[in-house]
Amino acid sequence: MHNDIEKVLYAQDQVNQRLDELANTLTEKYQDQFPLIVPVMTGAMMFTSEMMKRLNLKLNVDYIDVASYAENSESTGKVKLIQDLSHNIKDRPVIIMEDIIDTGHTLKYLAQLFADRGAKSIEICSLLDKPARREVDVEADYVGFKVPNEFIVGYGLDFNGLYRNLPFVGVLKRSVYER
């Protein structure tokens, strides 16, 4: 698996340090607000789990699963809701946790969905941001790292369901995903 990685962008210790910083910021802001944390599954699972350990505040967590990618590396641009929330978000602050902002279609869809449902506030916290691929106007409120326009895996990000368990963020070799 490690042989498929062209280079490591952010080692585990760098990711941990940045998560500590993000969690401190969120803890301070949401201390008395009881937010709902909403990871976009499955990619944000690892990021959200690690962030929740660091958040020193009362919160709920609920999951949403959407798809905008076909069985290859290209976004379809259309978002499909696969699993919806079980919590009522009306008048609740919502923090969407995302692994990477790429085209932006998923987050634009979710932000509008949650706004339509009456969320008190909606903020986005993403481990990674890839602005070179943005197709719609959406920005995260909190970002761990900006990444280049390369195929990124590790720390929850995958290619065909693989590489999510890598403890770092890396670039997948082109030869792997162009097979």
TrEMBL record:
Short name of one Pfam family: Pribosyltran
Enzyme nomenclature, EC number: 2.4.2.8
Location in or out of the cell: Cytoplasm
GO CC entries: cytosol
SUPFAM superfamilies: PRTase-like
Top EC class for this record: transferase
Reactions accelerated catalytically: GMP + diphosphate = guanine + 5-phospho-alpha-D-ribose 1-diphosphate; IMP + diphosphate = hypoxanthine + 5-phospho-alpha-D-ribose 1-diphosphate
Phosphoribosyltransferase domain boundaries: 11-159
One GO BP annotation of this record: IMP salvage
Keyword annotations from UniProtKB, A to Z: Cytoplasm, Glycosyltransferase, Magnesium, Metal-binding, Nucleotide-binding, Purine salvage, Transferase
Cofactor annotation: Mg(2+)
GO molecular function terms listed in the Swiss-Prot or TrEMBL record: guanine phosphoribosyltransferase activity; hypoxanthine phosphoribosyltransferase activity; magnesium ion binding; nucleotide binding
InterPro entries: HGPRT, Hxn_phspho_trans, PRTase-like, PRTase_dom
The keyword Ribonucleoprotein is assigned to this record: no
CDD domains cross-referenced by the UniProt entry: PRTases_typeI
Top-level taxonomic group: Bacteria
Pathway(s) where this gene product acts: Purine metabolism; IMP biosynthesis via salvage pathway; IMP from hypoxanthine: step 1/1; Purine metabolism; GMP biosynthesis via salvage pathway; GMP from guanine: step 1/1
Claim: Transferase is one of the keywords in the record: yes
Role summary: Purine salvage pathway enzyme that catalyzes the transfer of the ribosyl-5-phosphate group from 5-phospho-alpha-D-ribose 1-diphosphate (PRPP) to the N9 position of the 6-oxopurines hypoxanthine and guanine to form the corresponding ribonucleotides IMP (inosine 5'-monophosphate) and GMP (guanosine 5'-monophosphate), with the release of PPi.
Family the UniProt entry places it in: Belongs to the purine/pyrimidine phosphoribosyltransferase family.
Protein name: Hypoxanthine phosphoribosyltransferase
Organism: Limosilactobacillus agrestis
Taxon lineage: Bacteria, Bacillati, Bacillota, Bacilli, Lactobacillales
Gene this chain is encoded by: hpt
